[in-house]
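REQUEST
  id: r-88c1
  op: predict_structure
  target: histidine kinase
  payload:
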Amino acid sequence: MTTLTAHIMDIAVAVLAFFIISCIIKGKLLAVQKLYLFSAICLLIWLIAINGMTITNSLGSLQVLDAITCSCSALMVVTILMTSITYTKNLMKIPRCYWLIYVLPVFTSLIVFTNPLHHLFYKHFSIYASEVRFGPLFILSGGQYYIYCILSVFIMMRYGFRNRHRRVFGQVSLYIGGLLAPLAVNVLVTLKIVYLSIAATPIAFLFTIVCHGIAVYYLNFLNIKPLALQNMVDNISEGYVILSADSCIIYSNAVFDDIFGASYQMSVNSYLNVIVDELEERKKNVIYNLLNFFDVCKQSIHAISYEQAVLGDKGKIYYSVELTPILQKYRLIGVIAMFRDVTSLKEEMKRKQQNLSRAMERERLISLGQMIGSISHNLKTPIMAISGDVKALDNLVKEYYDSIGDPEVTLEDHQEIAGEMKEWLGKIQECCSYMSDIITTVKGMATNLSTSSESEFTVEEALKRVQMFLKGKLVKNGCHLMIKDELPENTVIRGDVNNLVQVLNNLVDNACDAMEEHGGNIILTAVKEEKEVILSVRDSGPGISETVGRKLFRSMYTTKGIKGTGLGLYSSEEIVRGKFGGKMWFENNQEGGATFYAAIPMEGE
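RESPONSE
  id: r-88c1
  status: 200
  body:
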């Protein structure tokens, strides 16, 4: 070994040792960085062993040092192959089965160290190259070197051609370039085109290690995190496009290309303001909106979103478009636009709204039926009373006609008959007035059942209507409605009074059904707690089981069998939440039965 080569070796050992120490100091390493560090350590030991061979003449020491160089070269080359596999497969953790590729290098290393026992690697070892005779397994050691190097180059080249991305080409070029230097040196030496010292190969590998080290730690090329993030974004279901500050398309994923690529001429390196001039009129709206909101995003330096309708082959498709600025040192360098298909979401919301409207309408009709039943019950009594009064009047009229001309009938008798007729007419008038009040109240409520008009109303008004409309069912089930109005006088709620009446009717009606067998008191309470009116309906029925409780307030769930619709509590909860901004819940009573609550925010609180 020449003096120049020795100096190069010394410098290489010092630089490599410093490089390895600085890598370790950087802290937690990724899998690919750990592999790189191990290959660098192998090269360092290799160089130290070669330096040792230049300062000793002991045959035994030379054999050990030579075995170290052979082992380090084998382990280093297979580690470079493992690095290629880890990088191209984006592995954060290396599977155990991958470590099997180390079996052959470890086996050849053992053969070299135990050569004096079997002479399979060297038939005769000598410090003079002309006297060295190689064994049958030497070819295996040399062959694996070339195989692993060629495999590494092939894997990286295939990965680069498959991805066809500028970042990937840079990574692959740097990696392969660093690996070709030692490969070329070994080919020249093996073919005896040039004659070099044994230090030539590790020095060539020093170029590989430095090249890969710069890539890993300073250029961040071999760090798989950017590629992993890019692959993740490319595989998401939403389309996205990256725009430069001058509205040029820098990059777009496959989903975006399928939607807008060919049909809207939105390809990489094209400008939006140029594209829009070449599109047909019906498609220009998409580009105009994107340009307008792109300018807003640039000026505000904040993420913004809007909705875009696109006419497709199967009808309109709706996208939620979100534009996010890309900043570098507080300077905007571009915008990323994400296109999320929300067609299914809009259709689902529309279906839910339609179902809710149908449920509300059905519940209104049910309330109307209950109201008519209550009306018929409330009107039956005065009608029957009027019928009796008319019968009594008819008898008095006959009695009066018969008394005309009768000398025994005195003036006092005529006055008595007239007084009785007037009394019966008064009773008829009271019944008619009562029926008129009922009809007037019902007429107003029936009109409002099909409309929803918001206004201020008192809770007292709603409680009175509930008491009137459910009077018939309460009597039928043997129940008595007790109203405890503990609110301050003239407590006002903003909304539609008929909506609240509908909710309370549902709750009281359910309480009646729960107490159908034994009857009892139903307590309707209204209290004020902080800024809310709390309305509660308490019954003494069987209560609510845990299984049933989990399903309450859900559409089409009922405990009444064919007698129930499953819409009462569901629509009530929707009304309280949607119309009044409140909430509903229930609690089982310790002594039996259940209490349903509706909390409604007060107007102006």
